[in-house]
Design a protein that fits this description.
alpha/beta, Rossmann fold, 7-stranded parallel beta sheet, 3-stranded mixed beta sheet, 12 strands, about 45% helix, globular, binds nicotinamide-adenine-dinucleotide, binds thymidine-5'-diphosphate
């Protein structure tokens, strides 16, 4: 080989290795857990912004799954709901076979519940992800997005987590998510399954089951009920508006690189007391509704993400925090029938046990 030919070949190889992935195009997308908070916002976003897409939503309808979250999309011929469990290998096999890509949102998602009873977290978050990965491997899926979380990194007093930092989860929830996160990665390394992992920070927005900080506090404040602040209220979370999160997942589905993990953060670090005050002030409710209660066991002090990697690829959040909070609070104020129905039965039993001292 001549010298110039050698350099030409070398340049060609370098180009192949470094040239950004061609955009992934999806026709039939299997979304799991799409009747929950983020999944339902995501399906609505995708149906509104991608004309030619077809979406299958596989959801077990646990206490957190609610078909009403997608009532406005139910008649869309591009949308199909399947009631079932991601742990059911026969079902996941059949649905993955029909799909070009999978986005796995399905999970048990509440830290407090994982402290009380971790069983379902291990089963759904780990074993369910395994069943989906197996089906994806068998049918040679074009893309598998595993929705992980910033909680897999654990807590940090200062600095921000980057994607290559060690995972140090500290609750049964975050440990089960870390297991799924790394299991998905192992399918990339071992079987070359085109897996991409996303790790988002705390989401807020419409359709969030009223057990998480913002949805619980807003709905309690609307009913003049106490807002139970754990410990000293100085724990910090980085808040991400759910529509920003949906846009980021859509972006990663098309542009993410196989085998990579991407942090998705809002850049809105706030203490729980700051969040509580915003809610009380926005609704014109008295400070006396704020009640300090016993701290959560193993309570992570602070989550913070570097989003440099996804920013370099071309995504950044675009909803200002203050506006998104006002919009969210207004949504719960204007959609009382949606959450009032949920605050009954199983919810009340959970609430009574969780907040005994209130
Ligand atoms: P959610 O609890 O509101 O919804 C979970 C959905 O999964 C529900 O519809 C439920 O019915 C369904 N589901 C549960 N077990 C299932 C099973 N075995 N088979 C099929 N469906 C099942 O949760 P969310 O807040 O929308 O979170 C969605 C995903 O995003 C989760 O994987 C969570 O770990 C991740 N995440 C959430 C946040 C957040 O702030 N909420 C942040 C980062 C990552
Ligand atoms: P949460 O919404 O449960 O999300 P995560 O624990 O997954 O970050 O909680 C957010 C923060 O709010 C966390 O520091 C715990 C705190 N918190 C309370 O102080 N009181 C509550 O009733 C709840 C549900 C959470």
């Amino acid at each position: 080989m001549t010298f110039s030919r050698f350099f030409f070949t070398l340049k060609f190889i370098v180009l192949i290795v470094h040239y950004p992935n061609e955009e992934f195009c999806v026709q039939t997308l299997l979304v799991t857990g799409g009747a929950g908070f983020i999944g339902s916002n995501f399906i609505r976003h995708m149906l509104k912004t991608h004309e030619d897409i077809r979406i299958i939503n596989l959801d077990k309808l646990t206490y957190a799954g609610n078909p009403e979250n997608l009532k406005d999309m139910a008649a869309d011929p591009r949308y199909r709901f399947v009631h079932g469990d991601i742990c059911d290998g026969i079902l996941t096999d059949a649905l993955v076979r029909e799909s070009d890509a999978v986005i796995n949102f399905a999970a048990e998602s509440h830290v407090d519940r994982s402290i009380g009873k971790p069983d379902d977290f291990i089963q759904t978050d780990i074993f369910g992800t395994f069943q989906l990965l197996e089906a994806a491997r068998k049918h040679g899926i074009g893309r598998f997005i595993q929705i992980s979380t910033d909680e897999v990194y654990g807590s940090t007093e200062d600095g921000c987590f980057r994607e290559d930092d060690p995972l140090m989860p500290s609750s049964p929830y975050s440990a089960s998510k870390a297991g799924a996160d790394r299991l998905a990665y192992s399918y990339f390394v071992t079987y070359r399954l085109p897996v991409v992992i996303t790790r988002a920070s705390n989401n807020f927005g419409p359709y969030q089951y009223p057990e998480k900080l913002i949805s619980l506090f807003v709905t309690n404040a609307l009913d003049d009920l106490p807002l139970p602040v754990y410990g000293d209220g100085l724990n910090v979370r980085d808040w991400l508006f759910v529509l920003d999160h949906c846009e980021a997942i859509d972006f990663i589905l098309r542009k993410g690189e196989d085998g990579e993990a991407y942090n998705i953060g809002g850049g809105n670090e706030r203490t729980n007391l700051e969040i509580t005050d915003i809610i009380l002030q926005t609704l014109g409710k008295p400070d006396s509704l704020k009640k300090f209660v016993e701290d959560r066991k193993g309570h992570d002090r602070r989550y913070a993400l570097s989003i440099e990697k996804i920013e370099k690829l071309g995504w950044r959040p675009r909803h200002p925090f203050g506006e998104a909070m006002r919009e969210t609070i207004a949504w719960y104020r204007d959609n009382r029938p949606w959450w009032e129905k949920l605050k009954s039965g199983e919810y009340l039993a959970y609430y009574k046990k969780q907040y005994q001292t209130l």
